[in-house]
């Protein structure tokens, strides 16, 4: 067998939408992958030259950028936050729709006139860039989840986080004040692998063709 391809996918919420897209590109995990009790992180696929790894969303980009995985699926939020030069995102998969937003406690108007702000977020780079464009220096407090409780506990006056239905903000007494970035999940590939391994290029074409078929339908 030739050297194996490694395809990285996030373990959380994109997964359900990603699996049918992957299946149409003939990337199909073994049955054990669907067993919630299974603690394995590596899974065989129906291709004997490909395996899947299931990792955290931010780590998908890291594995692919370093060539430890040749390709993967991840939200454009993660791609933009890291901005890895070795990562190429050739196909918008039109799944995992959400947006990145600034939010603050209802009635606070905390950003008015300030030149320096404290912001709780999982996205310090995107946050700093967003506020820099407004001439504001953002001091970021890095959290990995549950950003929405930070203002109430005095950790930061506002948050930058993903919003989909808006329910999490509402149920935590926050309102959106700025829409930063629309987000969808993308196919990502390692640039060197794309140049040197024709199987990677063929898979990119399979995902691209599926995406175009869906757009045309
Ligand atoms: N509310 C949402 N609606 C739609 N897509 C979302 C939403 N929240 C996050 N996403 C997308 O899903 C990705 C997170 O995927 P996932 O839940 O698999 O992450 P994870 O690996 O479980 O994250 P964590 O590191 O928090 O454990 C985000 O990067 C974003 O692209
Ligand atoms: O607008 P909504 O539809 O309410 O979705 C927004 C929530 O979804 C994401 O969290 P997720 O559920 O992925 O959990 P996390 O805190 O572990 O990231 C995000 O961080 C928000 O908390």
UniProtKB/TrEMBL annotation:
Record pathway: Amino-acid biosynthesis; L-histidine biosynthesis; L-histidine from 5-phospho-alpha-D-ribose 1-diphosphate: step 1/9
The entry's localization annotation reads: Cytoplasm
Keyword Nucleotide-binding listed: yes
The protein's matches in Pfam families, at most eight in alphabetical order, are given as: HisG (PF01634)
A GO molecular function assigned to this protein is: ATP phosphoribosyltransferase activity
EC number(s) on record?
2.4.2.17
Chief location = cytoplasm
Among CDD domains, the record links this protein to:
PBP2_HisGs (cd13595)
Give the signal peptide range: none
The record ties this protein, via InterPro entries, to: ATP_PRibTrfase_cat, ATP_PRibTrfase_CS, ATP_PRibTrfase_HisG, ATP_PRibTrfase_HisG_short
Record keywords, A-Z: Amino-acid biosynthesis, ATP-binding, Cytoplasm, Glycosyltransferase, Histidine biosynthesis, Nucleotide-binding, Transferase
Residue ranges occupied by any ATP phosphoribosyltransferase catalytic domain in the UniProt entry: 56-207
Which Gene3D superfamilies does the UniProt entry name for this protein?
Periplasmic binding protein-like II
Q: Which reaction does it catalyse?
A: 1-(5-phospho-beta-D-ribosyl)-ATP + diphosphate = 5-phospho-alpha-D-ribose 1-diphosphate + ATP
Q: What does this protein do?
A: Catalyzes the condensation of ATP and 5-phosphoribose 1-diphosphate to form N'-(5'-phosphoribosyl)-ATP (PR-ATP). Has a crucial role in the pathway because the rate of histidine biosynthesis seems to be controlled primarily by regulation of HisG enzymatic activity.
Q: How does it associate, per the subunit comment?
A: Heteromultimer composed of HisG and HisZ subunits.
Q: What is known of its domains?
A: Lacks the C-terminal regulatory region which is replaced by HisZ.
**Family (UniProt):** Belongs to the ATP phosphoribosyltransferase family. Short subfamily.
Q: What is this protein called?
A: ATP phosphoribosyltransferase
State the organism of origin. Qipengyuania gelatinilytica
Q: What would be the name of the gene that encodes this protein? A: hisG
């Amino acid at each position: 067998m030739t050297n194996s391809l490694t395809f990285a996918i996030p373990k959380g919420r994109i997964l359900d939408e990603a699996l049918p897209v992957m299946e149409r590109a003939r990337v199909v995990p073994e049955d054990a992958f669907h067993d919630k009790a299974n603690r394995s992180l590596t899974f065989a696929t129906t291709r004997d030259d490909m395996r899947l790894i299931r990792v955290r969303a931010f780590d998908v980009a890291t594995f692919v950028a370093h060539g430890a995985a040749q390709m993967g699926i991840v939200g454009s939020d993660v791609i933009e936050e890291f901005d890895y030069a070795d990562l190429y995102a050739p196909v918008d998969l039109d799944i995992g729709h959400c947006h990145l937003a600034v939010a603050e406690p209802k009635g606070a108007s905390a950003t008015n006139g300030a030149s320096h702000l404290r912001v709780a977020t999982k996205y310090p780079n995107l946050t700093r860039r967003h506020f820099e464009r407004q001439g504001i220096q953002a001091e970021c407090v890095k959290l990995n989840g549950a950003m929405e409780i930070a203002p109430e506990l005095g950790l930061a006056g506002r948050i930058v986080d993903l919003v989909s239905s808006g329910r999490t903000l509402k149920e935590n007494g926050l309102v959106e004040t700025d829409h930063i970035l629309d987000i969808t999940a993308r196919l990502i590939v390692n640039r060197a692998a794309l140049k040197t391994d024709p199987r990677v290029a063929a898979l990119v074409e399979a995902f691209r063709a599926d995406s175009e078929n869906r757009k045309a339908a």
